[in-house]
Amino acid sequence: MTLPHPNTDQISLPIVLGVLGDPTRLAIVRYLASKEGVPLNCSRFLDLASKTNLSYHLAKLREAGVTRAEVVGTNRMITLRRADLDARFPGLLDSVIAAAVDDPALPAVGGHDLEVPA
Amino acid sequence: MTLPHPNTDQISLPIVLGVLGDPTRLAIVRYLASKEGVPLNCSRFLDLASKTNLSYHLAKLREAGVTRAEVVGTNRMITLRRADLDARFPGLLDSVIAAAVDDPALPAVGGHDLEVPA
DNA sequence: TCCTTAGTTCAAAAGTTATTGAACAATTGG
DNA sequence: CCAATTGTTCAATAACTTTTGAACTAAGGA
Fold first, then answer.
1. What is the average per-residue pLDDT within B48-76?
2. Domain range A8-101, CATH class
3. Which fold does the domain B11-99 belong to in CATH?
């Protein structure tokens, strides 16, 4: 059970920009960047939209080549395709994330911040 | 006769990304970047779309804060708001332009290249 | 096996964006 | 003044995107 992803050279600049031009998706990417390395499942983003709608937005991100979704049991673990994006469009993701981090208009994921203290 | 432009702090990341997520507009921005400093009028872009449609796309770019349009006689001279964009979203425009320059799928402006030789 | 959890798919509705042509406005040059 | 040039506006349509709920699949645990 693997989901379709474009390979690196198939990632299109206008499609990536278009996909990132949506506050919900930008918020997802910003959160993924803040948890880089940690694979997160879809329900982590339920603050942002309904389950159905998330499925739609996460599919857009995946089909554009921005994220990778790996099937693990009943979960889909979502990660940023940072290395691929950096290779294809050097500096783009960094500058988008840096700008997104400073954007107070973007919706937040996990406002309660329930982290397990060390 | 001046046209409305957002000021720098009003420029929104998702709006800029959304506006750049269109091949016609990305081609306009790429061309503007290649002629930086030289103000170009709208008809310079007639290769890309009809006059009416260009008016629409150029308004989108201007309203997003990506370009500036100055009225000079019957012309609107279009320039990239590079300094403003660099201030607001450091590195973003550079990486977008660098990626756009390498994108063979984007439509080209002025394929015939009628430059006045020195 | 049955129930729960995680997420998808589908079709419909709602909303937004892109494209067109015809009509318009403003400036400039003859 | 007249005509040409430059670009806008408007209304219509076409095309796409987003959002929704109901129905569904697939895996995992009791």
1. 97
2. mainly alpha
3. Arc Repressor Mutant, subunit A (1.10.10)
